[in-house]
């Protein structure tokens, strides 16, 4: 799904969360919203999802204005920062929820749940409850649950923030691979530049509610367009990363 | 997280919102700690004996002083039956109204952010801080014949004060915060991510409540209802002011006990009291079952 934000403004109690935000993410791309905390990146994600409403500006999905469309009708899968798994449902019930709400047939639901459990390599754990899972497993379930109703756009809010550093790197690679395998347009929020550099095709750098620069990791390193970007992005690490690759 | 509210209602009540008693490590025998413990146990036991067990024993002894016949006669008295009915009716009304509004209020204040949230939470607590007698008077001044709405109510032949509706209103008023108070910290701690996630998948409000919110709050809700019932059954002050003490019409059990006692009908007074004691015991058992179940 092609995502476009045009001149978005959003204020919370006098705090400017989004100030003339415009950008586009192409179909099939994996984009990162990168910025320091309080720079407005989560707000942007929540507005695309329909969880928050912009004060002005347009949100376009596949070229159609969706400002007034409820989030549930936008064809979006959302992975919350703390996963927000339904704690009184099993892993399988969590994944099935979105399909049940859409009143899909029992057989169809079961097939899809099995398929997704297979995809996240948790076939044996369908009957577990969220509190019996590790952080990485919870994340995978959240991912599968978001994908279950076949969304066209996947939004992930700080997907690795709640996972300890050791597993994070591994999970990052896994998630990138999964997203490529499924071929879904994805946008994720992060404050970790290494994460953004490593995972994303396109990086959207936010600061104080504004977009500072949009580009591939290489573009941003080669030509930082503002003082903030030059200061914020540490390209030595990135160059090292590219050298290793 | 609204920290101020969290502070106001104390820390999280644990996963299911029930106050849990921490396990104390057993000290070695003969140590000073051991002695301190025993002294504390002794003082507590003495206190409980004098303040709780003795008075309850007095109720039972006095109720049965003139034998079973007098006891059962007092219980089977027409007015006692009417009073019991009214008490149960008022309790049922309080449970119904306060459960519905308690859930609404807790849902609103924990899942939505708006100006004046704290003010609303404070307002809900008013019945806890205000004397029940004053609560009763407030209703008389509002709905009584000389009150604000007196002319309107008289014109439409609606009786609230010195009638059953007044009793129900007063009972609902004094028990208003219980369900909310139990639910709010639990719902607040849960956050709203799960609800948002379900909403994004297209679940409607009722489905979200039934499948996401309710399983989380059900024990806290039951606990709140139990506390609410206990208070509703025992309420005296507010109900006393608004009732007018019309026997067989606006007398609840506690009021009936007072009337009997003032008429020097001690045995009957204690016999009727024993009904309240039994109801209290049942509630206590229910409460402990809920606490045990949530562990």
Question: Can you walk through the features of this model?
Answer:
The complex is a heterodimer of chains A (about 240) and B (about 300). In chain A, about 40% of the residues lie in helices and about 25% in strands. Chain A is α/β, with parallel strands linked by helices and about 240 residues long. Chain A folds into two domains: about 5-75 and about 155-245, P-loop containing nucleotide triphosphate hydrolases (Rossmann fold); about 85-150, no CATH class. In chain A, helix 2 (about 90-100) packs across helix 3 (about 105-120). The two termini of chain A are about 30 Å apart. Chain B has about 300 residues and is an all-alpha fold. Chain B has a single domain (about 15-295), classed as MetI-like fold (Orthogonal Bundle). Chain B has 15 helices and no strands.
Percent of residues in helices of chain B comes to over 70%
* CATH architecture descriptor name of chain B: Orthogonal Bundle
Total tally of structural domains of chain A = 2
Largest interface: A-B, 23 and 15 residues
| Number of H- or I-type helical stretches of chain A | 9
Q: Count the beta strands of chain A.
A: 10
Number of helices of chain B: 15
CATH class term of the largest domain in chain A: Alpha Beta
Low-confidence stretches of chain A: none
Overall shape of chain A? globular
Q: Cα-atom Rg of chain B, whole angstroms?
A: 23 Å
**What is the end-to-end distance of chain A?**
29 Å
Q: What structural category characterises the helix and strand content of chain B?
A: mainly alpha
Task: List low-confidence stretches of chain B.
Answer: 1-20
Task: Work out the helicity level of chain A.
Answer: 25-40%
Shape of chain B: globular
